[in-house]
Amino acid sequence: MRLVIMGPPGAGKGTQAAMIADRYSIPHVSTGDIFRKNLKEGTPLGLKVKEYMNKGLLVPDETVVEIVKDRLSEEDCRKGFLLDGFPRTVAQADALDQVLEEMNMELDHVINIDVAKEVLVERAVGRRVCKKCGSTYHVKYNSPSRPGLCDECGGELIQRDDDKEETVTKRIEVYLEQTKPLINYYSEKGLLLSIDGGQDIAKVGEQIVKALEI
Ligand code: AP5
Ligand code: MG
Ligand code: ZN
Q1: Catalytic residue among 2, 69, 160, 180
Q2: Is 2 part of the annotated catalytic residue set?
Q3: Which of 26, 35, 143, 146 lies 20 to 30 A from 158 at CA?
Q4: pLDDT at residue number 131
Q5: How far apart are CA 106 and CA 188, in angstroms?
Q6: How confident is the model at residue 214, as a pLDDT?
Q7: DSSP single-letter state for residue 45
């Protein structure tokens, strides 16, 4: 299965992507995660994207497209993949079409998680991530069994640098301007599955599985 999951910042893309990737045994390809890993390791790519991310702005299309192209050509993506956080502009979506065409592949579905704007800030600001393994929690909606510690690996839970309220608000603005138009883009191609992301994590997951298996 070749999938894209999209939606505003804090909608629950990463949370649902982990479940879907596991269920269908496909790699979860998150451009945000790739950038954060490079930031942490201080690679040239990390240095290049740092300022954009911390300001809540999009990394330039050419940089993102190159990273995704390389990742999709890896062996494990032959059986399918789930793209999370990419594409994020019409130019990226066009580039993805071209990359897939060159590889003789097509997308099966684009999952769009729809969440009211007011809910997004609370979700993002309350998010905590494991420093060691990247697992995601929420102080209120998905709390770990031991406060501040990861259930999976015992690692320390921290807040993402771009999850301060001011930066989250900027990210939402950028989403509305540059990414939301992709809803029409994929709807016109007949690929869009619209999911109500306002419910709890398990219910959103059930809706996605149901939509994929119709
Ligand atoms: P990225 O990492 O993709 O961030 P984002 O799109 O802003 O999305 P988030 O990861 O913040 O939210 P999510 O939807 O994954 O929510 P989650 O599941 O964690 O991108 C970061 C930055 O990288 C960008 O700003 C940009 O600079 C750069 N970048 C990345 N890709 C790029 C691209 N293609 N082009 C250009 N630049 C790019 O959930 C959020 C919280 O809510 C968690 O705490 C979770 O536990 C909780 N939660 C989840 N679901 C529910 C629910 N149903 N009910 C209650 N709580 C829930
Ligand atoms: Mg995410
Ligand atoms: Zn962990």
Answers
A1: 160
A2: no
A3: 26
A4: 93
A5: 15
A6: 84
A7: H
The mean predicted confidence, pLDDT, of the chain is: 97
Average pLDDT estimate for 175-197: 98
Q: Total structural domains in the chain?
A: 1
Measured from CB, residues less than 6 Å from any atom of ligand 1 are 7, 9-15, 31-32, 35, 52-53, 56-59, 64, 85-86, 88, 92, 123-124, 126-127, 136-138, 141-142, 162, 171, 197, 200-201, 204
* Active-site residue, selected from the candidate residues 36, 88, 123, 128: 88
Write out the residue range of the structural domain in which residue 23 sits.
2-116+176-212
Task: Examine residue 138 and state whether it is found in any structural domain, yes or no.
Answer: no
The model's pTM is 0.96
* Cβ atoms < 10 Å from Cβ of 110: 23
User: CB within 8 A of 85, min separation 6: which ones?
Assistant: 6, 13, 30, 31, 32
Is omega for the bond preceding 87 within 30 degrees of 0, making it cis? yes
Domain of residue 202, CATH code: 3.40.50.300
Q: How far is CA 43 from CA 22, 34, 40, 70, 181, in A?
A: 29, 11, 8, 16, 32
